[in-house]
Amino acid sequence: MARRRTTETDADDLPRFFVWVRGLEGPEPQRWMAMDFGVGDWKRPQVLAYLELPEDERHLPLSVLARRYPPPRVEIL
Fold this sequence. Notes:
By secondary structure, the chain is mainly beta. It is 9% helix and 26% strand.
C-alpha cells in the first residue's frame, strides 16, 4: 500500500527546476526554485543542464530525478 503524504505542499513551494551543475568530482544534481543566476551571472558556467519539472514530478526525491534525467557527458580538460 502506498504511503500518503501527511501534509499537502502547494506546487508553488516546491523547486521548479532540476539542474546538473559542475561539481568537484563530476556533475552533481540540484533542485532550484528559479533560474536566477545572480549578480554577474557567475553561476552560468557551472550549470551543465537544466529542466523545468512538470508539476507532478516536483515532489520526487533528488535521487529519483537523477536516475530519470541522467547527467550530460562532460569532457575533462
